[in-house]
Design goal:
12-stranded antiparallel barrel, about 325 residues, SH3 type barrels, alpha+beta, Porin, 17 strands, 5-stranded antiparallel beta sheet, single chain, 2 domains
Length: about 325
């Protein structure tokens, strides 16, 4: 009997020990499952927050008709973009009506951080151009009292343009190629081709040129040079006058405030064949006031004509109005 009791007690003790091990294993497995579940839930929440943050970015949508819509992105696919705006709530815009989409920087509270003013008409002074380029697809126009000048960015490096008076006399076309050598060094090469138009179709001219610009869009100085040749036949006159001259210019712009800049331009030439080979041309100092949206600017200055070693001031102001389309 004693032996049976000892064996029975031993078996019972082993069974109790086995049950304890099973319970411990179950508890350990439950802890591992709980930790895994918590990690999975945390990853899911992180992914949702990341997706929500990505979708709620603030953008400025510019339509093809020039209207701008600002709001938070709810959804964006190949056909349309869905925004949440402060004024009208949800707005769905088809992609074919959109010209551009610009991301806007925001702070931690979601307020838009004002972006730094980006001068649009950095390639022009009063008359001459520089080594910088017009962005692809952008149209920039300059209107003066005597005529206008329109340029179009074919690519980010190539632009074409047309310059004429309001009577279409003369008509001058231009092609320019620009390249950025360094952060603040730009070069360009181009050619101007002109005709006397309906007033004198037999009058024509050409001016190939090159330019180098030091600085950025806000403040820079430019040096350019070229060689011009023209054949001019006055209306109702069979005689022709030829003109050949080396030409150069110095221009620049200096930002005074975010919207106001000082502008200087000049254009000098010296005839190749002339009894009096004195330097001639013009100089024009002035200032430019840009709009807040950078899509227009007004420029004012006074022109001085260089002749016989003297600068003769023209009493009329030199006015320019720039517009981006």
């Amino acid at each position: 009997m004693a032996g049976i009791f000892v064996v029975s007690f031993t078996n019972t003790k082993n069974q109790m020990y086995s049950l304890s091990n099973i319970k411990l294993n179950i508890m350990r497995n439950l802890k591992m499952i709980l930790v895994a579940a918590l990690l999975l839930a945390f990853q899911c929440l992180s992914a949702q927050n990341k997706e929500r943050t990505t979708q709620s970015k603030t953008v400025l949508v510019t339509l093809t008709d020039g209207i701008e819509v600002q709001g938070e992105v709810i959804n964006d696919d190949d056909k349309e973009i869905l925004l949440f705006t402060e004024n009208v709530g949800r707005v769905s815009i088809p992609k074919y009506k959109i010209r551009s989409i610009e991301s806007l920087a925001t702070d931690r509270k979601g307020k838009i951080i004002p972006k730094e003013h980006d001068p649009t008409f950095a390639t022009r002074y009063f008359l001459t151009t520089n080594g910088m380029s017009i962005p692809k697809g952008e149209v920039q126009a300059m209107f003066a009292l005597a005529g206008f000048d329109i340029n179009y960015g074919v690519t980010d490096k190539i632009s074409v343009g047309l310059m004429t008076s309001y009577f279409a006399i003369p008509i001058i076309g231009n092609v320019k190629y620009s390249e950025q050598l360094k952060e603040n060094v730009h070069i360009s090469a181009g050619v101007l081709l002109g005709t006397g138009s309906w007033a004198s179709f037999n009058s024509r001219g050409a001016l190939p040129y090159g330019a180098i610009t030091f600085g950025d869009k806000k403040s820079n100085i430019n040096f350019s040079a070229g060689y011009g040749a023209a054949s001019i036949q006055p209306l109702f006159d069979s005689s022709k006058n030829t003109f050949n001259a080396g030409m150069f210019s110095v221009g620049g712009i200096l930002a005074v405030t975010e919207m106001v800049s000082l502008v200087f331009d000049s254009f000098m030439f010296m005839p190749k064949k002339s009894q009096d080979r004195r330097l001639a041309g013009f100089v024009t100092p002035g200032f430019r006031i840009a709009s807040k949206k950078s899509d227009s600017a007004f420029q004012f200055g006074f022109m001085g004509v260089v002749s016989n070693g003297e600068i003769i001031q023209i009493p009329a102001p030199s006015l320019r109005y720039f517009k981006k389309f």
